[in-house]
Amino acid sequence: MPRTIALLVGSLREGSFTRKIAKAIEERAPLLKFDPVEIGDLPLYNEDIDRGSPPAEWSRVRNQVKAAAGILFATPEYNRSVPGLLKNAIDVLSRPYGKNNFDGKPAAVVSVSPGAVGGFGAHHHLRQSLVFLNTPVLQQPEMYIGNVKTLMDDKGVITNPDTGKFLEAFAAKFSDWVEKFAK
Fold first, then answer.
1. Residue 175: enclosing H or E segment and its boundaries?
2. Which of 42, 159, 164, 170 lies most in the core, judged by the most C-beta atoms within 10 Å?
């Protein structure tokens, strides 16, 4: 039976390249089932609110991530870092102090960019946060997907055979990584 993976995508755009790459990975990962975590509707994190009755959206994403066997972070790069909506989701999911929903969960990071660098800055900023949150992150293969417009068609079908093989290898390694940490 496939393991459920919480999918956090840092892009809200309808035609998001990042979301299309995540879907292409899932199609190549028969042992994983991606559960998209909707983060676009999350109120900004505020510890004062969390002390009382947290918003239903916060509880929804916390429960979703808590139930998952692992996490895939798929992010574009905004200003050499992660988009604000993804950072907010990380804050919501890792707080209040002592209630870190990422603790010990295996994860992987995919950064996607229409530019040549492949979201390097976002990728490493995200990894830095995940180290602090005690989230074991898959080390290899690193997934910087640059020049993404040239790798797929408008529907998100991967048209570059080498990219397809790369995504397949990543899916296999991530499946193994999740299995290694599965509880």
1. helix 161-181
2. 170
The residues, ordered by sequence, that sit 6+ positions from 129 with a Cβ below 8 Å of its Cβ are: 87, 90
Q: How far apart are CA 85 and CA 125, in angstroms?
A: 14
Residue 54, both tokens: 């947290």
User: How many helices and strands in the chain, by DSSP H and E?
Assistant: 6, 5
Listed residue (133, 129, 170) closest to 21, CA to CA: 170
Give the span between the Cα atoms of 109 and 36, in whole angstroms. 15
Mean of pLDDT over the chain: 94
Query: Quick check: helix, strand or coil at residue 43?
Result: coil
Domains and CATH numbers, the chain: 3-181 (3.40.50.360)
Over residues 29-52, the pLDDT tens digits come to 999 999 999 999 999 999 999 988
Would the pLDDT of 183 be above 80? no
